Request: fold
Amino acid sequence: MDIFDNLANGIVAVATPMNLLLLFAGVLMGMVVGVMPGLGPSAGLAILLPITFTLDPTGAVVMLAAVYYGAMYGGTITSVLINTPGESATVASTFDGYPLAKQGRAGPALVIAAVGSFAAGTICAVLISIASPVTASIAATFGPPELFLVVVLGLLTLIVIVGGNKMLGALSALIGFAIATVGIDIGTGQQRYTFGSVELINGIDFIPVAIGLFGVGEVLHTLWRGGHLEKLDYFNVSARSKGFWPTKQDYKESAGPITRGTFLGFFVGATPGAGATVASLMSYNLEKSVSRTPEKFGKGAMAGLAGPEAANNAASSGAMVPLLTLGIPGSASTAVLIGGFMMWGLQPGPLLMEQNPEFAWGLIASMFLGNMMLLLVNVFCIPAFASIARVPFRVLGPIIIAVCVLGTFTVNGSIVEVGVMLVCGVLGFFMRRFGLSPAAMVIALVLGPMAEETLRQTMIVSGGDYGIFVDRTTSLVLLVLIAMLLFLPLAARGIKHATARAVQRYGASRRLSERAEARRGEGGDGGTGRPSDGDSGGPGDGGHPDRDDPDRDDSERGRSRDRVDST
Amino acid sequence: MTTTHHIDPGTRTSVRAPGWVRPKTVFLAVLLVVLVFYTEMAFELDWRTTAGRIGPGFFPRIVGVTSLLITAWSLVAAIRDPDAEDEVVALEDEVGDADFGKHPRLLTIMVLAMVGFTATLVSLGAIVSTAAFLILMLTLLNRGRTVLNVCIAVALPLGMYLLFQSLLNAGLPEGILPRF
Reply:
């Protein structure tokens, strides 16, 4: 009952006219950020951070969270209309979203995506309400050794699960740690890597680094790849057109994928390191495997859009659990969000829900209200957002750079920070170009001081004895998890193969049972029983090669895995 | 200024330079040098304090040595298997857009323009330096639309100034124009 009381209090705290206005503004700005190709939620959040300076902490964080999930919604519009994902988490939405638009069904595709996102967001807000207090109460028993190991675990998950080259992923995280060591050493008061500069005594601020890596770095990379030459082929969509709304069949086809995508996405998102991109691609593969009509996937299957859409929004909600309860950002976007929280003096972690319940529950409550706003804004303003998506990069690129420079300057009025931002922008370009991970670097930058501090505290507690990590049961469990994670790449092939086979068997049995039912139905109708239905592949004929050939499905899954690695 | 190339991925490898002069190798080599300096400085900091606690050099030394080892390993791998670079680029190119070639010259101009923008931000002020940056880059990228480019170059800095300075009181440099 405490949960519902806290949630009710949170809703009361958020439901002030000012906060609702901020929520609405955040949702709108997030949508705008989301529909701009090449400008994902992390860049959008980083750029918009300075706008929240004059707000009170609750209002500011509610607005930032609204920008975050608004951007996750918005990315779908470009995926469906111009076949260009606004950010990596909506890559899976292009597979069937764009083919649907080509069939003249852009309206139903976008409405179903909005409904799927709304359902996922709302269910996940309930799951967060339940999971967060439980996780926080467990995390409250953690001491410095466990917190240090949780930080290591979070970073390892990020490196092992996402990204193609794990060595370069680890290197990215280490660069983040190295940047985090600039400034005064908290333990001794000694300066490190400041080179006598007063500006660097307090360390390198997180915001210029995030704006540079995600905002400027992204623009430079798109420019280098010739984004300014791109001519956008887009589909018009109008709420007044006849086929704008989905049919009953569309809703029926989407219900299952949305439900599966929601739960899959939430648990993937709640795992530190595994984000919305992984969740959406996993959901696409899952839906294709269990579908009764897998041959429609890639050609405009509503299930192929609804599942990943629900999954990516659920994952972004799920990522709030480690963020609120452990202070561990699960993705680049949540790393920026955590930077925003810290800016307001709020330290996410096990004690947040005890010490700042009105803030934590206000944030969770804002998700319920924000999702409702997003559904309305999304459905009724689709044509307006579609027109924003048509602004070409050749105009957008310089504007984003100007906003990044001015936004960074306003943080502390420091031109040195603008310089840091530009250097990080160039670094971000090279990191993307050569397969390093800006996300891992930013997360390590946030976690670096926490890792150093908890390790220092651990050593003080143990008197310099590293045996403390194996003496305590919880830290021993975490060490075992870390060891398992390190050996995961060795076992990954076998696990993936076994999972794929299991899902495939389930899908095949669904298809067979459906065909058997169809046959019985035809027999009951007094049909002639002519072998015409054999064309569709009966239970005894081994099925259609396109549908049931395991090797074919495996190879397609393999291609999708490549996509995960590349994003 | 910029040309549109349509590069056939199959022909990429044949015209490329040997592994040790590839861009990725150069990048990793520069990173290695920076990390050598970082690690060297880390070893000048104390590993432990006189009280026996973790010193200021404890964490930087671990980070420095580990990152040096990984960078050296990656550098050797990049030299020995230069095509691995192509794989990364190809995978990135696969997501999203078509291949419009690479534009290092335009990229350099953008970076130089950003440096100029930052260098003049305080002296010329937010409005003037932003307008100058925008007009330069929009003229290069969005050719033939002079009126639109000028409108954006004037309206955006003014809007940003009004938002940050007048509305949010966040403080932007006024430079040669009077504050309003």
Q: What stands out?
A: Residues 2-237+245-493 of chain A form one domain. Chain A has one domain: 2-237+245-493. The first helix of chain A runs from residue 2 to 14.
